[in-house]
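Hey there, shall we discuss this one?
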Amino acid sequence: NEANLAVTAFVTDVDDQPTALDFVASEFTSEISDKKFSIREDVDTTEAVRIARLDITDVDGGLNVVKVIGEDAAYFEIIQDAETGAFWLQLKANVNLDQDKQSPKQSFNISIEYGSDFNVDALGAPPAPEQFELKVQAVNEAAQVAQESPSVFYVDEMADGDGSQPFVHVGSVRAIDPEGDGVSVLTAAHLSSLMASYSVEAA
């Protein structure tokens, strides 16, 4: 005897782990090489600064968990844009980038963990963390006049005596180079033409 039995099979969709993570530079950073970016030391960090957009390749397009780990993780945070849903790696507010201050960091090294779920039994192991380096680019800043330097000089109209000296020293202005070099600016007046000229000497 034979009997027929109808069988219905249901396939349950599983949110598979993502397969790749790419870093896309923000307006404040430049890509040096794969997963290595740079940022200028004069970027304002009074508020958090976006460093890179994190583009995750996920065939299911499901929800993903993203977090920062590594030796410099405390300097960073990850946010998700409310409008686009994109993940962004940010430098936290008030992180010092100034290379002229004491003990500046010249680079930051972190890793990014990402996955649909970190429950290995449910979905399998998530991808390996992606390493990332942010280097701080030093900027040659202009010298700044020291506060104690005078801003006005007075010259006797007969200071050149018989007129044999085309230039007469008027005074000195001290300027400070943020990179650490002192600069002394010597100001001289060309009395014969009443035109000012300047010369610069290292202190």
